[in-house]
Design a protein that fits this description.
single chain, alpha+beta, Ribosomal Protein L22, Chain A, 2 domains, four-stranded mixed β-sheet, 7 helices, 11 strands, globular
């Protein structure tokens, strides 16, 4: 199946016993650098998440490009962000990948920059991070909330900010205080006077979505659209049998 025009697919995969039993098979679709990187993880849960995330990505890209999963090759784009290697004239298919303890996700689309992030809200996190690195507007929302709401709010902002800087490819070279989010609805604001001298961006070109696919795991998606019209966004659980069939 070719890459869908003006559509973005996001698939998430909880790492449960069914997935764990298929990991040896999933690992066979990875190339040698990926397998070597997987072996460098100290904790098995992190290694399992890496393998599952990269197999999911290859499966989705095989569906989008028509290239066999094991034959896909990648190059580094600006800021080192991975891209699918393609021949001259081929349409660019964009993707992004994220994994955390218990959950992995991948986003695939054409003609739009995109980023996806998942994180584990059960991790012990100091809310001083919000005060030190978030935009003041976001930090104020987190720290003024009721105690039981602060950590979920922190991860809502954190995954959105991570998805955004992954979509631009800048990573943490982009100061996290140089832009801020509001929630319900999700909107972004840019601040040119906050230690950022990069390209001028337009908030109306950005589209965001967020969900909690399994308890205490947040997922956020960021898309820079070709224009200001919303793109169809299909977010749902991956089908393990479909993944295996494409590998």
């Amino acid at each position: 199946m070719s890459a869908p025009h003006d559509a973005v697919r996001v698939r998430f995969l909880p790492i449960d016993d069914v997935v764990a039993a298929r990991l040896p098979l999933l690992q066979t679709a990875l190339d040698e650098p990926e397998r070597n990187q997987a072996e460098r993880f100290y904790h098995r849960r992190d290694r399992d998440a890496f393998i599952a995330a990269h197999a999911l990505t290859r499966s989705m890209l095989a569906e989008a490009t028509g290239v066999p999963a094991a034959s896909l090759r990648f190059v580094k784009g600006p800021y080192g962000k991975p891209e699918v290697a393609r021949s001259a004239g081929e349409r660019q298919v964009h993707f992004n990948i994220s994994h955390t303890n218990g959950l992995v996700a991948c986003a695939v689309g054409a003609d739009c920059e995109l980023g996806v992030d998942v994180d584990n809200a059960e991790r012990t996190t100091s809310l001083d991070v919000a005060h030190r690195y978030f935009a003041p507007e976001e930090s104020a929302v987190v720290l003024s909330a009721l105690p039981e709401q602060r950590l979920p709010l922190f991860y809502k902002f954190w995954t959105l900010k991570e998805a955004f800087i992954k979509a631009t490819g800048e990573g943490l070279s982009r100061p996290l205080a140089s832009f801020s989010f509001t929630l319900d609805p999700i909107r972004i604001t840019f601040y040119r006077d906050r230690e950022y001298a990069g390209p001028v961006d337009v908030p109306a070109r950005w589209q965001f979505a967020q969900t909690c696919p399994i308890p205490n795991r947040f997922l956020a998606v960021a898309l820079r659209r070709p224009d200001v019209e919303d793109l169809p966004l299909d977010i749902r659980a991956a089908n393990m049998d479909e993944i295996v069939c494409r590998l």
